[in-house]
Design brief:
single chain; 172 residues; alpha+beta; Jelly Rolls; six-stranded antiparallel β-sheet; five-stranded antiparallel β-sheet; 2 helices; globular
């Protein structure tokens, strides 16, 4: 009986706090770095596709959806990749959230690219790659993924020789 009274009391307290907050007319804080009045609503035809950052093989295309990946705060980008496109083992300082928009994208974890261990993710799938987790990816078909996280965006390859931006500076 005492357990029921405590649960009921806790539920009433939570409801009372919620009602008090609702009656004050306060709104939740805006996303860091964005004013509360900055709504983002974009259709696929409005996206502006261009080359990805140098840390990606340049056969892909990238579009900014919202935010600025080079600055602190929430960002959202899309990456369009041809069939067979690979992102070699790497990691990020923050969580990476990946949603498959179209096609089939595959993810794996570890320090070495192993196609046999990739998990195929069809359109509509989601992947969360925690900060510092070593992972890799491949486009099983031509695909588009949406990536969002907290900036500034940073990608570090497990094997520096896999970094496309380093290959260019080394004359390869």
């Amino acid at each position: 009986m005492r357990k029921v009274v405590l649960c009921t009391t806790a539920a009433l307290l939570i409801a009372a706090v919620g009602l008090a907050i609702a009656q004050t007319g306060t709104t939740p804080p805006a996303t860091p770095g964005m004013a509360a009045s900055n709504m983002v609503a974009t259709t696929p035809t409005e996206l502006k596709w261009g080359p990805p950052p140098p840390v990606f093989e340049q056969t892909a295309q990238m579009a900014l959806v919202s935010g600025d990946p080079s600055k602190a705060g929430l960002y959202c980008v899309r990456l369009k990749m041809p069939v067979g496109y690979k992102i070699m083992p790497h990691f990020h300082p923050t969580d990476e959230n990946v949603t498959v928009i179209s096609g089939t994208f595959s993810l794996g974890s570890g320090d070495k690219f192993d196609e046999a261990t990739l998990k195929s993710l069809p359109a509509g799938s989601f992947g969360l790659l925690p900060a510092q987790m070593h992972h890799y990816a491949m486009a099983k078909t031509a695909c588009v993924v949406q990536v969002h996280g907290m900036g500034p965006f940073s990608l570090t390859y497990v094997n520096p020789a896999d970094d496309p931006s380093m290959k260019k500076t080394m004359g390869k």
